[in-house]
Design a protein that fits this description.
393 residues, mainly alpha, Helix Hairpins, two-stranded antiparallel ribbon
């Protein structure tokens, strides 16, 4: 009897804990603001920042991939739908009421031409990107043409991702079957562009007529770490495909008009004397920093950049860096007399003389300002030292 009571109590406690955990998972997030959503839409909407704010991560990812729904077209179209997105994110009673009416009216989500077209476009984009990422030529003695059979997978993934935005959902395997069933048409149509387009259209039709259904349960509220991991992984895969395209199939035109593959150009660059010199310079800089500190590196970098224009000013006046203020002033007055635009008789050379005269004036002002600042700084240091000596005495 005692054992049975203990088991019952444990089960009761576990059930209560489970309810608490479920309530925490399904708890409403902090309310989202329409104003903030519009600000993010305006300044970062092309990259889906407003969708990330509203926890619409799939939508944000697709906006990243297509630059705002194919170069901003979808982004502009959202100007009137953002309030609805915010009500959805807040699970506003008004939105829930409207959603329940849709569930009662339509057994499955009705046809949306905008969503259907976007499924085809994203499926085509992903398929075409996968196609471009496959090496056209042999690489390291291997033929990678067999990877073309991954294209239907990426097409189906694009269609499925669009289909699962918002309060609609569907399974992936329907799209996969349709895409792989349609892709063999490539053996009859010898154009990969039309093949991918037909594959995407077929997968979108199957998803829209077979897979599509309502998302009846509230969207899961995932943590920031999980969202960041999934979003960054998807972005990494996407940009990796672009990287493969540029590396394997991209070309650079040399000075003779010949096209050189980027991967060959990259290998040649790594073997070039220029890159060898850069590596050695970086290595020497690191060794110097270990002995003298990174602050000395920073000071030398600023000096080499000539941020205050001192080096260039000495060069314009034709003086060395050790010239005194008296020498600077004398040289400046001498140059003003010899290069003054009024002394130039030839009209065609007057503009050049004017420019040279302005450069000399600016150089003199820069050096005078720097010299004056150093004199004031030195006087201050001397006065401080005298005061300290007086205090000690």
């Amino acid at each position: 009897m005692c054992c049975e009571k203990m088991v019952k109590n444990n089960n009761k406690t576990m059930a209560q804990n489970g309810k608490v955990m479920n309530s925490e998972v399904n708890a409403l997030p902090p309310r989202k603001s329409v104003f903030i959503a519009y600000i993010l839409w305006l300044f970062g909407g092309v990259f889906g920042l407003h969708h990330l704010y509203l926890h619409r991560d799939r939508h944000a990812f697709l906006w990243w991939c297509s630059l705002g729904g194919y170069f901003g077209i979808g982004w502009l179209g959202e100007i009137f739908t953002i309030p609805s997105y915010v009500r959805d994110a807040n699970e506003d009673p008004r939105f829930i009421e409207e959603f329940i009416k849709k569930l009662q009216t339509h057994k499955k989500p009705p046809y949306s031409g905008k969503r259907f077209l976007f499924m085809i476009m994203i499926g085509y984009l992903f398929g075409q990107l996968a196609n471009m990422a496959i090496p056209n030529d042999l690489y390291m003695g291997m033929d990678f043409n067999f990877l073309h059979w991954l294209i239907p997978f990426f097409v189906a993934l694009g269609v499925w991702t669009v289909g699962n935005i918002g309060r609609e959902r569907g399974v992936l395997w329907h799209c996969l079957l349709a895409a792989f069933a349609a892709y063999p048409i490539r053996y009859f149509i010898y154009d990969e562009t039309y093949t991918i387009l037909i594959t995407s259209l077929t997968a979108a039709l199957v998803f829209d007529h077979v897979s599509k259904e309502w998302l009846r349960t509230p969207p899961k509220r995932r943590g920031i770490c999980e969202r960041f991991f999934k979003f960054s992984t998807a972005m990494f895969i996407y940009f990796s495909l672009w990287g493969c395209f540029f590396y394997f199939n991209g070309t650079i035109t040399d000075e003779n008009g010949n096209e050189v593959p980027i991967h060959e150009a990259f290998q040649n660059f790594l073997a070039s004397a220029w890159w060898t010199d850069i590596k050695q310079a970086l290595k020497d800089m690191y060794t110097y920093a270990q002995h003298h500190g990174w602050y000395e590196i920073w000071k030398e970098l600023l000096e080499s950049m000539d941020v205050d224009g001192e080096r260039n000013a000495y060069k314009v006046l034709g003086l060395s860096a050790t010239a005194s203020q008296t020498e600077i002033t004398a040289t400046y007055r001498k140059l003003c007399k010899t290069i003054h635009p009024d002394t130039v008789k030839d009209e065609s050379q007057r503009a050049t003389a004017q420019q040279r005269f302005i450069e000399v004036q600016q150089a003199y002002e820069i050096l005078s300002k720097i010299k004056s600042a150093r004199i004031r700084k030195n006087k201050k240091v001397v006065n401080d030292d005298n005061e300290n000596d007086t205090i000690v005495l």
